[in-house]
Amino acid sequence: MKILRNRAFRWILLMLGLSAIIALTGMNVLSLYDLRDRMVESEEERRIDQLDEINDTIRNQILEPLRGLYRIELEPIESSLQQTGQLPENIQDVLTRSSKSPFFNSIYFTPENVDPCNPDNSIYRFDPENQQITPTNDFPDLVCDGVGLARTKTKIQLNDFNYRWNNNFEFDTHRSLNIGLINLSESRMIGYITLTLNEDYIVNEVLPPILTNYFGKSEETGIVVWVRDWTNNRVLATNDTNIEYDRNLRDHVMGFSGSGFFDNWSLNLAFLDAPVTNAYNETLIKNLIVLGVAVLFLLGALIFMFVTAQRERHLAQRQASFLANVTHELKTPLAVMQAAGENISDGRVTEPKRLKQYGEHIYNESIRLRSMIEKLLDVARVDSGQNMIKAAPYSIHNLMNKFLNENREYIENKGFEVKFKSSAEDALCMIDSDSFETIVHNLTENAIKYSKDEKCIEYQISSNKDNVFFSISDHGMGIPKKEQKNIFKKFYRVDDSDSKSTKIKGHGLGLSIVRNMVSLNGGKIEVKSSSGKGTTFIVRFPKLNKDDVSKEQLQNIQTGSSPTENLNKHTKYVG
Ligand code: ADP
């Protein structure tokens, strides 16, 4: 009951652990996607903000030479014009500065009382060479438009009592910049400065570098930006001439007019799917891979720990039952020997026939005890890694023959027929003869133990280019398929609950010792068995090349003399 409870508890813990890992992974994946989206979004917002920056930069560059105009007293303009026909010096300076700016083509001054829309009227044109204004009738129509715009807009401003500036800037789209000059004390207009804008310079010299500067090449940044004259449906500048402006492609649009100029120009932006999101997708994929690997490690560690714990528990269970068994097994022959010895030493048994019987009892039990102790010692040696292998070139055929000569009678006395077939008389292997004997002995013991009605054991030896094989087959009860992978484990016994009454004695050590000895000698063991039909254990050792064996050794092996005595042994310690 307690074991069951513990087992259920362990499974519940495993499930909880797995669920926690899955939940955490799920959460992490979601938040990684969320993070990617946010990063893309904030990157897009940052880029949109850059459009404003472009607007401001161009506007500042245009207005640069006019900076400080608000600090100049404008009232003296009219008297200066009347007296000298020129503007006051400080205003001439502003105009000189402006005339040097590549943004402007020409500069005009229109007094408030002159209507520039009448071509007969003359206004003033600023001459950059003389740095003076000269009256002119030759001025473009856009002066009329610009002055009209500035007049209307500035008058509206003047109606607002809070307006405290002595001038007012108005852009007539991208054609001109018009400055209304105000006599603040009398709250009336003095005149207008019109600066005609150099569209070619802005379109060809200013916009392309600034766009590339902010947005790079579209194939690298994944962003295309166009400056478009929407009234004429014309792209003025772009950072990628290969991609045509398309309303459906664009993700964001803003007018230059947002900053109060170039009403009919707009800044358009498109985020191509590729690099912007790709960059973040790459980060996302990297993060997902790292997460995946970490989760795999975590799952691996969890499952490994669970499986190891299960294994250790099974081993502990098997060890506990082994200990109980062993104690019983050791006590039984001792008790028999003790009783028999006591009877003889007391002088209670004197009859020769009974004395012989008692002697046989003591002898048999001592043999049983010895084999038990030897097995335990073998296991202890394997466990402590102190197994000593004395490898020498041996013919498996000869070794098997020797074993059968010594044990045939014992096996036949148990009612078994012994068959021996060999097709590899000459094949040699580098093995330890003691190990070989232990292996064959244990397999034979098992064949005897686990056979019921058909009592026959077959020993076969064969070889191929690389290996020598020997097999030991019986026609006994066989081993169920699902148990076959376990029988070599220490303390493992097939649970033959079907035949409990005739439970065969054993400790689950024989095959573990066998497998260990086989592998210490460089070989492999496998089992072929089917329930109720019989079992075959096949052992394979690497074949020794005859050229590697000295003539003397070869002769000894072929004449069948014991190689153990005659050959120089290659001793190796395995640990
Ligand atoms: P033991 O025989 O002491 O139980 P072993 O390690 O020799 O321990 O064998 C492990 C298990 O393998 C045995 O309990 C038995 O069920 C099964 N087994 C081994 N050899 C045979 C065989 N020749 N026929 C059927 N079952 C076998």
Named CATH topology of the domain at 387-570? Heat Shock Protein 90
Question: Tally of extended strands?
Answer: 18
Give, in spatial order, the strands making up the sheet with the most strands: 3-2-1-6-5-4
Radius of gyration: 53 Å
CATH architecture of the domain at 387-570: 2-Layer Sandwich
As a percent range, the share of strand residues is: 15-25%
Task: Offer a quick outline of the entry.
The chain has 575 residues and is α+β, with helices and mostly antiparallel strands. The protein is built from 13 helices and 18 strands.
Written description of the protein model:
- Among the domains are: 67-197, Beta-Lactamase (2-Layer Sandwich); 303-386, Orthogonal Bundle (Helix Hairpins), CATH 1.10.287.130; 387-570, Histidine kinase-like ATPase, C-terminal domain (Heat Shock Protein 90), CATH 3.30.565.
- It is an alpha+beta fold and 575 residues long.
- The protein is rod-shaped and about 165 Å long.
- A six-stranded antiparallel beta sheet has the order 3-2-1-6-5-4, sandwiched between helices.
- The relative contact order is 0.07.
- The chain is 50% helix and 21% strand.
- The longest helix has 72 residues, at 274-345.
- The chain binds adenosine-5'-diphosphate.
- Adenosine-5'-diphosphate is lined by residues 446-447, 450, 474, 476-479, 487, 492-494, 506-512, 535.
- Its EC number is 2.7.13.3.
- It is an enzyme of class 2 (transferase).
- This is histidine kinase.
